[in-house]
Amino acid sequence: MVNLIKYELKKHFLKRSILIAILIFSVINFIKIHSIYQENSYIAESTSPIWHEVYWKLYDQFSGVITQEKIEELLSIYRPLEQKTADLTASTRTDDPNTYTGNVYSDYYLLTRYYVQPMEYAYMYQFAANDIVGTAQNNMIFYDEIGNKYKYRENQMIAKLFANRSITDLSYTEMYQYYLEYDFSSLLVLLICLYGLVGVFVSEKEADMDTLLLTTVSGGRKTVLAKIIASMLFIFVVCLWFWLLDFVGFSIIFGSLEGAALPIYTLKSFENACINLSMSQYAIVSAVIKTGGMMVLGEIFLLISSASKNAMLPFSANLVVTGIAILHKEIMEGSGYILAKIANPFILVANSELFRQTEFVNFLGIPVQSYVGALGLGILMGIVFLFLLLFTGRKNAIVKGKAGANNEL
């Protein structure tokens, strides 16, 4: 069986065209990450050298554990700038020696964006979280009185999830802000997997070898199983490569790994996150879930391809399926149709939507967090598609004949 898997890997995936596609897409991915840095970061060294220098000069002074002393020190610098710029009458000279960047307005906007607002958000977050807990506890009392057990449990889970949340440190989080919501590489992986998987079952059919294979000892469902395993290994390796490339690319281009140990809700876009993980932990969990979602989609590609004798038809059909999945995900994003949202396996691939908000689905009267429901449905779909692939495969003619002969004896 191992040799058969190796043969299928070599036959379908260790091809020059696939390796070239991976190489080209890797370069495109790296360029995309660089463009995100250039377009979104105000402290990019190549486009904003002054801001870059000043930000990291002040970083040692204000980063780390947030203390009252640091807050007062920051405000002592910021308040005068705020007053000077309030009526837009401050000097616009760009060589002011009494400023950090050479300009009063530039100092004000730099401090506002990268120090004052992040510190304010971090300091106030624990109070916002406590308010959520208090509201949830009040709701628990209300729903307990009217006998609504489902809503009681839902608010109980919310209260437990947000209890004791706080952000104690100020850190550079720009790298993780864009890295953890980066989905472009997922699209590249999808295209590579689609291209690689479309010929797994079609190649023998196009050469009229599928019937002949049934007369061999390793033919039939044994070959189908080997193809599936080889396909999943291919998906795993491609995913691993691109997820690592994402991390390395963002780390090198943004030039920092600061903030890895801070909780995910340190990022404002994740302030209502449904998990209590650090940013580095979330990155690993997200990558694993992405890979699992890609495998489910890969099984769909294989299932569609196995029903055709020509590569062009399943390739086109799989492109349509992929487009529908992506469009459905975009339409459902941010909507209240939670069950419809998580029923799409592509939500596992571009999964930041699952974790940014705390949402629930009703499973037999029990509130289940949406990401748990999405994982459960993904696993269920994966098992169903696997059995369909195995049991729609034709049986080995020799083995079947031997079985019949044994029965006659």
UniProtKB/TrEMBL annotation:
The keyword Magnesium does not apply. The chain crosses the membrane at residues 18-37, 184-203, 224-244, 250-270, 282-305, 311-327, 371-392. The keyword tRNA processing does not apply. Keywords: Membrane, Transmembrane, Transmembrane helix. This is ABC-2 family transporter. The lineage of its organism: Bacteria, Bacillati, Bacillota, Clostridia, Peptostreptococcales.
